[in-house]
Amino acid sequence: MLQGIHHITAITGDAAGNVQFHAGLLGLRLVKTTVNHDEPGVYHLYYGDEGGRPRTLLTFFEVPGAAPGQPGGGMFHSISWRVPDGASLDFWERRLTEYGTRVERGEGSVRFADPEGLAHVLLARGTRDDDRPAQADGVPDEHAIREIIGVEAISLKPERTRAALVEGLGMADLGDTLVVGSGEHVGSVRLHDEAVSRGMPGGGTIHHVAFASPDDHHKRWRERMTDAHLLPTQVVDRIYFRSIYTREPGGLLVEVATNGPGFAVDEDPEVMGQALVLPPWLEEHRAVIEARLTPIENPRAPR
Ligand code: ZN
Questions:
Q1: What's the domain count of the chain?
Q2: Which of 3, 81, 192, 302 pairs as cysteine with 212 (C-beta 3.0–4.6 A)?
């Protein structure tokens, strides 16, 4: 069985503002500052909990200057996060409002969007002993955002998407919601029933969603995806995890990523995220890459 949502990757047109919002305001930890391996002149920024663990990871590809996109068919959108309780929702309603973010308070939820329009929902779902909330100025541990528990999917062909996620990725079909994983390692995908025309990629839209696999089951997931006619890619080494991708028939790009080895594989976990890390094959181009990248300010970096 897969083990929930490993990470969600979205697009940002404004890397500096993106760090300010997610690390500064939301208090997530920038756990890795690196470049897009497939396009090394731009950032790939990873945010997560204090340990940068699977199920807490929101990542962004930078497309400098990209205008906000429009979610639509073939795209995921709206990320649900677990926060502890009603007092946490009060805290986030206040904090977000203070910083000028429009908030919609519901029964047991707080909804808002990042400055580029990426929708978020905070849900009061309790704490767990193994929570490792990110340490951030102005965000007390008891209210810190814990983990990603769900995402919405808009498909060009909902019934084919449902079949792909159930047969290829082993999700449980609960009607409008598909459940991936069980117990404490669980996430949900809410599938919109109506086919919708294609969305427009851009800032604030989700590029893909990755589901978590135990390292030793990863190859078998590829076989299962192949058997379900999902035409998966080969296994790709992303240094922090290994990945298999497929664009399912409803247009959604999905990934199955290993839990390990994680973000401490090339940096001291105490300071990870603060310096620009390049994969070994790009190290010789560091000066050129650094000169091209947008300056960003990590709130945790020493001043
Ligand atoms: Zn990914």
A1: 1
A2: 3
